[in-house]
């Protein structure tokens, strides 16, 4: 095996400059003699045990270490470039790279000069975003990044090579030996690939590449004739892959730089090629596969991907399914109804949205981070638009084949195998009618589903299925019926069965209980047909319009600047900047309860409560059709007594008292209130919950997507959880914090969280939080401005995404919202709401004045601090 290994080093002669794109097969063979490579057609289903590998992308010094790799010839090997040394010709022309390389500068001076130079070019728009990232963070100068421990390179490489690393990790789980050839094994690789080989370069072996023993470009290397990235990739293929006949395929080819590598082989399969690579593959009649990572299946020989069950097909379930498949997990979604969408599916008999539902959160909060809404849609969409959006989401990411409808999970049993691992056995019953059920043979029911993956594709699932991980995404679907109303002799119904106003409510005395947005919608409709309509809100509530002005969504106005002034972070300053103290809460959001004394909230800070973003009912209050009341004290027969002592008679009571979660019976049961970040069970981290979070201001889907991404990353091994003791301590601390943060609501909404704090915490756990420095380096000063104005929604993490299309869309979305708000503000003269009951709310041209007030307040604080700093002696004399 080791015979002639020294001959694999690069010869001293210079390789002839050829146009490899035009060279024929005979010419290439004559130039680079090699053994004929074993022809093998790579099927769509990749077989790692046969030697097929993905992402053959070699670093500029990789082929110097081929001798060490040959010892593992015949096993599935994968080469991934973690140095990112490819730079565009435009970068080379604009940056005096070779001039700086020849200067005897310390690494710190290198970084400083390079950063300043790049920032100047970026601010002057002389350097594109992609070129800027490649120059400073992509590894143009190994010297610059080495002294920093490759920290900057790791951050960008983690995104740039994320699809490739996912495939490598899936191959490793499938039993393939993964060999990563790199001059310096970075921490980036270790969470994905356990077997990492570190190579030491033999002294004097890289004369042609002109690199030293540590893999750095030598300072005495000539300006012309240094290392050649494409040539080194080709040499790697010639001396190792083609010579040993390893089957070859490449995924996510990076344009023209991968073409020379493929020219060394006669036949190849190209997966998801980009433009240049696609043209070359089409010209050479290679097999071209176009598929998503979730659609690329691996036939396994020793190990298999973790099987994940996702219970529930709403927003949370679909997000969890998409990200699990993207991580290479074998996931299946179980939905008990005949359609995905959860509460956003309209059902005439109830159990879904109302007939005229319009979302109270803008589309900026409701859309997925990687699948934007149509630009022509309004800011606030109806339930039909959202239902269509979810169907398009399923189709876009190929989720349909992994969804099993009409499958109700009735039991959840956790078992321990002989090797000490936990398995989750779910008992599943079909909710199809008996006439539509397909019979299941007893033999098939007892068969292990791992023996036949196609059994999951039948109309009805087997009675039991076994999984390695379980994600519960059922949401809150069980109506909460307070026992206080059990003695009512009239008609009592829950908002879950309400769909639209009809004759049942005409001429009746109706009482609506609850302060949520469903109560607002029902009250607005029923008061137009009922004889009397009374609305009882026990603890009061903050009401807010959907729009801050005529067009702009109100929720998009609460960016980082508003968070600084109104968020809970300011509490650390002893309440000095509390919005309730300085009066900004009342000015920006209007008086508590919209000026109605009976609905005055018990909290003076909306951030410590929650807001109802539907106040279209205000006009009906002013006309007397709708009457406000506080808490209900007692119910007897048809009489209802309120806390002000008044008793009224009612025919119908509609309870808008919310929902609670119901989980499949689990053995053994899990402890309550031991959920780490509302997601992972501290007792059993193989079980996770997604979508049970509740924001003060914001939207559940935006927070849910971040949870789904985190769960998938943890289950795939990309992220790690703390020890059980640490998770329990954090969960207990979070409970205590919420008790202080939401003193009047934490007991009835235990998952209530501040939207900004929680989403940024998820960004931190995922490693995608866009700090000021990262945004400036990626998007320049314009990016900094957008970062300040943006809400910390899911697309914020995409400001640094390696996928330019997604990152560009995220940046454009922020710009669109900014322009939309400016147009709305310019068209707004005075925006008044209806004058209601007790002196009420003359709201507000806040959307026009509030930003100016914020700036003046910040200026006053700055002046106060400056005055204290400039007069220290006066302060000391005063204290003495």
TrEMBL record:
Basic and acidic residues bias locations: 438-459
Biased composition (Polar residues): 428-437
Keywords: FAD, Flavoprotein, Membrane, NADP, Oxidoreductase, Transmembrane, Transmembrane helix
Transmembrane regions: 848-870
Stored SUPFAM superfamilies: FAD/NAD(P)-binding domain, HAD-like
Molecular-function GO terms, alphabetical: flavin adenine dinucleotide binding; N,N-dimethylaniline monooxygenase activity; NADP binding
Record region (Disordered): 419-459
Keyword Flavoprotein applies: yes
InterPro entries attached to this UniProt entry: FAD/NAD-bd_sf, Flavin_mOase, Flavin_mOase-like, FMO-like, HAD-like_sf, HAD_sf
PANTHER family for this protein: DIMETHYLANILINE MONOOXYGENASE
Family: Belongs to the FMO family.
Name of the protein in question: Flavin-containing monooxygenase
């Amino acid at each position: 095996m080791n015979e002639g290994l020294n001959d694999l080093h690069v010869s001293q002669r210079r390789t002839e400059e050829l146009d490899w794109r035009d060279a024929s097969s005979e010419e290439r063979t004559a130039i680079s003699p090699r053994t004929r490579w074993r022809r093998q057609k790579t099927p769509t289903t990749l077989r790692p045990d046969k030697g097929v590998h993905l992402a053959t992308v070699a670093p500029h010094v990789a082929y110097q270490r081929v001798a060490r790799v040959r010892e593992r010839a015949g096993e599935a090997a994968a080469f991934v470039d973690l140095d990112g040394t490819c730079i565009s010709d435009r970068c080379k022309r604009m940056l005096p790279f070779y001039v700086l390389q020849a200067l005897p500068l310390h690494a710190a001076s290198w970084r400083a000069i390079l950063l300043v130079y790049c920032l100047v070019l970026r601010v002057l728009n002389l350097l594109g975003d992609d070129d800027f990232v490649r120059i400073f963070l992509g590894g143009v100068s190994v010297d610059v990044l080495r002294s920093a421990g490759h920290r900057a390179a790791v951050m960008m490489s983690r995104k740039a090579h994320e699809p490739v690393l996912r495939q490598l990790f899936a191959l490793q789980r499938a039993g393939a030996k993964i060999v990563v050839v790199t001059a310096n094994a970075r921490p980036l690789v270790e969470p994905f690939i356990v077997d990492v080989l570190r190579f030491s370069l033999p002294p004097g072996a890289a004369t042609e590449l002109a690199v030293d023993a540590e893999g750095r470009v030598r300072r005495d290397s000539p300006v012309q004739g240094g290392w050649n990235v494409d040539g080194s990739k080709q040499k790697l293929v010639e001396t190792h892959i083609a010579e040993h006949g390893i089957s070859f395929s490449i995924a996510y080819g990076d344009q023209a730089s991968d073409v020379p590598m493929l020219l060394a082989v006669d036949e190849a399969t190209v997966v998801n090629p980009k433009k240049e690579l696609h043209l070359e593959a089409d010209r050479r009649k290679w097999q071209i596969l176009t598929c998503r990572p979730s659609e690329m299946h691996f036939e396994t020989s020793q190990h298999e991907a973790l099987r994940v069950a996702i219970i529930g097909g709403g927003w949370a379930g679909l997000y969890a399914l998409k990200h699990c498949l993207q991580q290479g997990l074998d996931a299946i979604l179980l939905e008990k109804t005949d359609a995905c969408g959860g509460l956003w599916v309209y059902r005439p008999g109830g159990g879904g949205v109302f007939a005229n539902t319009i979302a109270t959160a803008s589309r900026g909060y409701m859309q997925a981070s990687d699948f934007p809404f149509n630009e022509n849609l309004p800011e606030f969409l109806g339930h039909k638009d959202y239902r269509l959006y979810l169907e398009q989401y399923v189709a876009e990411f190929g989720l349909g084949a992994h969804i099993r409808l009409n499958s109700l999970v009735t039991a959840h049993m956790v078992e321990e195998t002989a090797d000490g691992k936990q398995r989750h056995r779910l008992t599943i019953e079909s909710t199809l009618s008996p006439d539509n059920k397909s019979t299941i043979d007893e033999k098939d029911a007892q068969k292990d589903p791992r023996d036949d993956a196609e059994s999951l594709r039948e109309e009805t699932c087997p009675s039991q299925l076994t999984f390695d991980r379980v994600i519960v995404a059922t949401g809150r679907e069980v109506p909460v019926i307070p026992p206080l109303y059990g003695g009512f002799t009239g008609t009592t119904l829950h908002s879950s069965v309400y769909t639209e106003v009809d004759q049942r409510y005409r001429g009746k005395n109706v009482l609506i209980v609850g302060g949520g947005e469903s109560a607002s919608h029902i009250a607005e409709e029923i008061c137009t047909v009922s004889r009397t309509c009374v609305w009882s809100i026990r603890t009061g509530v903050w009401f807010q319009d959907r729009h801050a002005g005529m067009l702009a969504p109100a929720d998009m106005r609460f960016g980082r600047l508003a968070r600084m002034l109104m968020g809970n972070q300011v509490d650390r300053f002893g309440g000095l900047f509390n919005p309730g103290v300085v009066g900004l809460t009342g000015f920006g959001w209007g008086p508590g309860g919209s000026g109605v004394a009976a609905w005055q909230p018990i909290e003076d800070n909306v951030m410590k409560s929650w807001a109802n973003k539907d106040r279209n009912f205000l006009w009906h209050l002013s006309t007397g059709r709708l009457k406000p009341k506080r808490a209900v004290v007692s119910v007897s027969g048809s009489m209802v007594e309120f806390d002000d002592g008044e008793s009224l008679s009612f025919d119908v009571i509609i309870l808008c008292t919310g929902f609670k979660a119901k989980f499949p019976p689990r053995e053994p049961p899990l402890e309550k209130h031991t959920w780490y970040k509302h997601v992972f069970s501290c007792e059993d981290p193989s079980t996770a919950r997604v979508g049970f979070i509740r924001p003060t201001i914001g939207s559940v889907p935006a927070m849910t997507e971040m949870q789904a991404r985190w769960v998938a990353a943890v289950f795939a091994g990309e992220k790690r959880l703390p020890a059980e003791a640490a998770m329990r301590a954090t969960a207990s601390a979070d409970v205590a914090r919420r008790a202080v943060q939401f003193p009047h609501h934490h007991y009835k909404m235990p998952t209530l969280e501040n939207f900004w704090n929680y989403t940024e915490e998820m960004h931190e756990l995922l490693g995608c939080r866009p700090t000021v420095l990262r945004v400036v380096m990626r998007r320049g000063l314009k990016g900094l401005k957008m970062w300040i104005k943006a809400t910390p929604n899911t697309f914020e993490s995409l400001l640094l995404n390696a996928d330019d299309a997604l990152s560009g869309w995220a940046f454009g979305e922020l710009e669109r919202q900014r322009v939309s708000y400016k147009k709305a503000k310019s068209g707004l003269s005075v925006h008044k709401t209806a004058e209601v009951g007790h002196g009420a709310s003359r709201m507000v041209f806040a959307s026009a004045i509030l930003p100016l007030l914020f700036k003046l307040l910040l200026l006053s604080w700055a002046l106060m601090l400056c005055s204290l700093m400039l007069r220290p002696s006066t302060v000391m004399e005063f204290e003495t």
